[in-house]
Amino acid sequence: MSYNIFSLARNALSGHKNWQPAWREPEPKASYDVVIVGGGGHGLATAYYLAKEHGITNVAVLEKSWLGSGNIGRNTTIIRSNYMLEGNNPFYEWSMKLWEGLEQDFNFNAMVSQRGIMNLFHSDAQRDAFARRGNAMRIHGVDAELIDREQVREKVPFLSFDNARFPIQGALIQKRGGTVRHDAVAWGFARGADSRGVDIIQNCEVQGIKMEAGKVVGVETSRGYIGCNKLALCAAGNSSEVAAMADMKLPLESHVLQAFVSEGLKPYLDTVVTYGVGHFYVSQSDKGGLVFGGDIDGYNSYARRGGLPTVEHVIEAGVSMIPGISRVKILRSWGGIMDMSMDGSPIIDKTHIDNMYLNCGWCYGGFKATPASGWCYAWTIAKDGAHELNSQMRLDRFRRGYMMDEKGMGAQPNLH
User: Fold this and answer.
1) Could you say which of 33, 35, 49, 404 would form a disulfide bridge with 378 (CB–CB 3.0 to 4.6 Å)?
2) What 3-state class would DSSP assign to 396?
3) Alpha-carbon span 139 to 311, nearest angstrom
4) C-alpha of 141 from chain center
């Protein structure tokens, strides 16, 4: 069913009782051309672009829980393409361009809001680093603007500009950045893939990978054996566990990243703001709540809940940046499992197993990359080789010494 003014009017006359389900609930077939492990944003986007761009529709997306129960529904909804390095900048800019046409593309309201993103800086050295990043962005045709203290004050006057330790000197802004409704992204890609013949199979946990003569022939699941010609892993923080079923050890660590939402407030924050010292980021949702987060908890875990020290750290940074929120109550918090790579950049690549492919290592950047990740991963699977946009996101780059270290932290995943 197409969503438009005519279908809305027609269903309004029937009391909205005749809307069709957004996607089917099919039984698993005996085999597929491509099986995608993971029904989050990246897995669903991959299935969508396999069908749309490459005509490969005999595809199954296997999700161990309900659709969108993982990181796609546990993030802070921010999209941006303000990256500096050659391997990252074109990729995330392509993702931004896909975001800009996504709702019309898959005929679903994902609430894309290009309200801009503002990265504050607090010292001369940090200003110079932001200027360098902004220049790199503009060289690649990506919008970036460095603004001073008074220009920041005009946009967000309630910040703590005269903080004794971290006075605000200015900001790097990207006006095309913003937020998107995260669960609507999952629903939109699921609906788009399903309408093109992809089977989305929920409550179907992969429990083993079957191989013959060095190739994957299928997967053992909680709903029985499913054969496949190609297997695409897209399991985010659980990538290491799934890859281990094929005797692969990945250069990843799994960490918890917490996020928070406050009680509803009257609209007063119309952009995304990040703190240059405390790794605090915040925006205001359409419901009025402040959506914010900070650093990973810093210890390895598969639990989707965090520890109180990080809660305290995030709240301290938030109140330091915006003193006025000290009276605001936190409504709820949640955690996602981050697959932290050694250099803080993702992996989209073939594996040493001929017909098995890997999409992982997204660290903090997974949500904003969803469309480009699915688009490039679909290309890699369909063409059996990387697209230019993900050509540097190779699995073997750590062995070869070609890391994409955006933050300059070295091979320490907990610092990325």
Assistant:
1) 49
2) coil
3) 38
4) 23
Provide the H-helix boundaries in 322-359: none
DSSP-assigned states of every residue in 12-70: HHTTT--PPPSS--PPPPSEEEEEEE--SHHHHHHHHHHHHHH----EEEE-SSSTT-S
Instruction: Tell the residue number behind the tokens 């607090």, with chain if given.
Output: 122
Question: Tokens at residue 182, please?
Answer: 């995260």
CB 395 within 8 A of CB 239: no
- Identity of the residue numbered 1: M
C-alpha–C-alpha distance, residues 211 and 216, integer Å: 4
Rg (CA), the chain: 21
172: helix, coil or strand? strand
State residue 79's pLDDT score: 97
The answer to whether 355 touches 215, Cβ cutoff 8 Å, is: yes
Tokens found for residue 413? 């995943």
In contact, 61 and 196? CB cutoff 8 Å: no
Query: Band of the pLDDT at 305, cuts 50, 70, 90?
Result: confident
Structure-block tokens of residue 368: 């904003």
User: How far apart are alpha carbons 109 and 107 in whole angstroms?
Assistant: 7
Which residues are 253's β-sheet partners?
Answer: 340
End-to-end alpha carbon distance in the chain: 43
What CA–CA distances, in Å, run from 87 to 131, 212, 397? 19, 35, 12
One-letter amino acid at 383 equals K
CB 226 within 8 A of CB 143: no
Question: Rounded distance, CA 174 to CA 313, Å?
Answer: 26
Token pair for residue 265?
């407030």
CB 167 within 8 A of CB 87: no
Is the torsion defined by CA of 111, 116, 120, 125 positive or negative? positive
* Tens of pLDDT, residues 343-397: 999 999 999 999 999 999 999 989 999 999 999 999 999 999 999 999 999 999 9
CA distances from 183 to 77, 92, 102, 294, 306 (A): 9, 20, 14, 21, 21
- Residue 1 clears pLDDT 80, i.e. is over it: no
d(CA 250, CA 413): 12
